[in-house]
Amino acid sequence: MHQRLAAGGEDHAGLEPGLAFAEIGRHSVLLVEADFRSDALSQLFGFGPTKGLKFQLTRHKKNPVSPWVVIQVGADPLYAMVTGTNDGCGHCGNPLPGEARFCPTCGNDNADAGAGLDSGAFLAAIDRFRQAFDYVIIDAPSVLTGGEVNLIQDAADAVVFVARRGQSTEQDLRRAVEQVAPAQVAGVVLFEK
User: Fold this and answer.
1) What is the pLDDT of residues 70-121, one digit of tens each?
2) Does the 3-191 domain belong in CATH 3.40.640.10?
3) For residues 89 and 105, is the Cβ–Cβ distance under 8 A?
4) pTM of the predicted model, to two decimals?
5) Which of 181, 178, 119, 113 is nearest to 152 (CA)?
6) Count of CB atoms within 10 A of residue 124's CB?
7) Cβ contact 149:6 at 8 Å
């Protein structure tokens, strides 16, 4: 039953199916925050700075057998992999000053620390998560603001769009659907705001 779903948009409404599955208590659900420009999932659950997805993807490129760390949310079988802080060394996790290329603590090169999403590492991570959780819900950035969602959709079985009444236009929704084609669209969530 392992399912993956990518949800794009600022309101994170695509996460609601995952929350509902977790509340039932029969399915383990992992929410993956894959929007590196926002820490909305961290804010939603009140998580502080953490060694999140970006740090762990970098670490797994260097050491593929290192364990993945997720956060359990409450008593339900609901877990989260948040974006986390992106200002740490990808090797030892210690804070890096400014745009440092080399870590003063461990001496490793962090030239790729500021890079965007690594599609190969991300796909491998999602495949691993599929083995451990019944549902993996990926909170993706807005489709029309960048190309990351096209990398993320390759890891998803379906896409749920989030639109806001009065702000999202029919034309924007059509452009978003065209951008993720041929991905399966599972639905559109319309928010009243």
Assistant:
1) 888 877 788 888 876 555 665 666 666 656 666 777 777 765 554 556 778 8
2) no
3) yes
4) 0.73
5) 119
6) 16
7) yes
